[in-house]
Amino acid sequence: MRRRDLIKAIGSAAVASSAKAQRPEHDRLPQGPFRIEQDGGWQTLLFTTPSDTPLRNPGLGLAGYTWEESGPSLAVRAGRETLERQVEQMASLPFVDVLYIRCDWRNVQKAPGRLELDPVWGLTLDAAKRHGLRVAFRVQLSNPGFQPQRLALPDFIARQVPMVEIGTIPGGAGKYREPRYDHPAFERAFAELNNLLAARFDGDPLIEWVDLMQYGFWGEGHTSDFPNPFPDSATARRTMAAMTEQQLGRWKRTPLAVNTQPDISRVGNDQVIGRAMRAGAWMRSDSIVVEEPQQIDLLANRPPWAAAVLEDGYFRQYDVTHLERDSAGVNVLENYMLHVLDLGANYWSLWTEAGNLARYNERYPRGFQELRARMGYRVRPAWVWQRKRASQSEVIVAVANRGVAGVPGVLWLTLQSLDGKFKMRGALDAGQPHAGGIRCGAFSLPKEFTGRVRLRAELEIRPGNVRPVAWACEQQAEFDVKPWDDRGWRKGV
User: Which residue range(s) make up the domain with 405?
Assistant: First the structure.
């Protein structure tokens, strides 16, 4: 599939997916246009000031790694720190919103039929609960970092699945080996893994997203310059498509994020990306500045309801002693970080070195400040009006989004009296309001209702997975619904 064909296919799918994600007519708010049909027939009830205060809303944030592809932090690996202390240090950083685990298959399963999660999982989930954070993860089916000593696969699977030598490890340490993903034993074990993970984590309120388990090095859909382990390209594409379908079919309430790696290993990545996007998946890339035009174009022009997860694979340690500055005096990592805003991304990933992260933030605060103030979506009720329609009133809310990304899902609005006796709820269209945009929604009030009401927002990131959203404004979203007289608005109102 050609690059532009892929974008068109995903763009067309976005319309269908958006329609699918919208609520039934009785839940979908009327969204305009709203005309004024009589003099004195409207009144501004509320207008709010945008705020740059960082918000820990679902669907956006800085993701601190508690475990990366090579394990815990460098200090833990060297014996200078405990894993418990490392996880707590990461969770305690004031700018971290999500804790992320990237581990091998062998770190979650040791024997058939059950999950056996390594200690980092319990530590991370517990820290997230205590600090009000969320959790995301990737389970890698292949990891070249520990080869030839060990594979990413659990031993009980490695004994059943043929391994293919695909090339020499630099320095002559041995051969890289990849499993035959199309082998029946691998397919059975993978299906079980997917079902076990989904049974444990799909819909868990702590889990923000899960990376799609993909073929190749670090689960990124490639084996670098080495050949793939399949007997032919048709088998590769068929196998990767089947693995994708299994995951899309099982994960219903927690978003999956598909890696946007180009198909350099000829395993059908374009088809995987297209299929995942049509099913409502998010997108991710493990590099940003050094990426090729294909990934940047795809991420920047993704559907507005799809979140984007970005990280940097080069300056991951945040070591302030080895950061060069360019002619403008900007350090190279900060330049990388600010490109996140160009892509309209929702997440930026932070490696395991919590101490380095704290020192970097102290010396170069602009990067994290800019991301926390602008990354993702930032919605507020910019205007709220009351409109007279015959003998009834309507409240129209103009929701503005000053973030760089669309709303990653469906935004629900609730209008409720302070005493709780009156309550109305409805949804905007998926992805609305888009980045930098405004979307209006209207509530038809019961006849002759007046009183003070509060406006709340929630994000449905997947069907049935609804989470509260904090408004990005300085005022409280409360206002009075006004009474009428025969001349329109009462004097003094």
Answer: 24-52+378-489
